[in-house]
Amino acid sequence: MDLVTVTVPSLVRLSRQAQGLSLGRRRILAEQSGGYGSPFRGRGMEFDESRPYQPGDDIRNINWRVTARTGRTHTKLFREERERPVFLWLDLRHTMFFATRGRFKAVIAAELGALLAWSAAFNGDRVGAVVFSEEAHRETRPERGKGGVLRFIRETAAHPAWAAERHGRDAAQAAGRALLHLRRLARPGSALFLISDFRHLPEQSWNDLLRLSARHDVVLVFLHDPLERELPPPGRYRISDGRAEYVLDTFDQSLVEQHRQRFEPHLGKLRATARSGGMRPAICSTAHHPAYVLQAENEAPRR
């Protein structure tokens, strides 16, 4: 498996692993006829018909228009939709092309996206995506079945970010623009999976995440490399960005502490934002296998 890029065949092969994932059963809010649960807020409810009000009906569902026309109180009845749009927000900005263990964050992100897309398709949901970098922005509108997954996979594998020079263009602007596109594309009640390291996110974008959470079910999949979280034991290490070499001196405890103080507040802000908006964070290291992370997230007890 390639450590620094992805291909269409490599992402297609993940369909086998996705068959073992049951990510659709996240939160059971209501059981409808047939025993099919509504795991996501807003999934589900579309107007079916009206009938005369009966004791015990929710007064919030009174159909006032029919009531006024007939002179008799009527209640709206709803039926559950059997599908929901699932959107993937996939970050391929320059900070995602990094790893000291495992594979690039961008590779893990693409694999996570493919696993989620296949799982959604197996569950009968439509799959759409926003795949972005500083260089290019790609969108796929929700599509049911294998076709929707393959479109996402092709857009991901062919994205210009895989061949781009890492000049550190305006990463904040790219992320902010991509979030606005996601807000425009996703209809209320969609399931949104945002896959990123969430670095260089404008302050306004953190507020946009909260706005998204008010209308959708949002999972924040946070990617990081172990080195970003904690520097290695005391020593002098040669590191390279592909163009130049540097010496990392971890005997310097002030450097170690400064490094830690950059990562922990960032992760803390992500978790605090998720908690405030009722979103669920999922933490994934470049050293982890994406399928394992998703399965562990699915089986974790819900707070």
Question: What would your notes on this structure say?
Answer:
- By secondary structure, this protein is of the alpha/beta class.
- The protein has 2 domains: 8-24 and 83-299, 3-Layer(aba) Sandwich (Rossmann fold), CATH 3.40.50.410; 45-80, no CATH class.
- It contains 10 helices and 10 strands.
- It has helices at 8-12, 15-18, 64-70, 105-122, 145-157, 171-185, 203-215, 226-229, 253-277, 290-299, and strands spanning 45-52, 74-80, 85-91, 126-132, 137-144, 191-196, 217-224, 236-240, 245-249, 280-285.
- A hairpin with a 4-residue loop joins β4 and β5 (137-144).
- α4 runs antiparallel to α5 and α7 (203-215) runs parallel beside α9.
- It is elongated.
- The model is unreliable at 24-44 (pLDDT under 50).
How would you concisely characterize the structure shown here?
This protein is 38% helix and 22% strand. It is an alpha/beta fold and 303 residues long.
Shape verdict: elongated
In what order do the strands lie side by side in the largest sheet? 5-4-3-6-7-10
CATH superfamily of the largest domain: von Willebrand factor, type A domain
Using the coordinates shown, work out and report the CATH topology of the largest domain. Rossmann fold
- Total DSSP E strands: 10
Structural class: alpha/beta
**End-to-end span in angstroms?**
36 Å
Low-confidence stretches: 24-44
What is the share of helical residues?
A: 25-40%
CATH class group of the largest domain: Alpha Beta
Describe the oligomeric state of these chains in a short phrase.
single chain
Helical run tally: 10
Q: How much is the radius of gyration in Å? A: 22 Å
CATH architecture of the largest domain: 3-Layer(aba) Sandwich
Q: What portion of residues belong to β-strands?
A: 15-25%
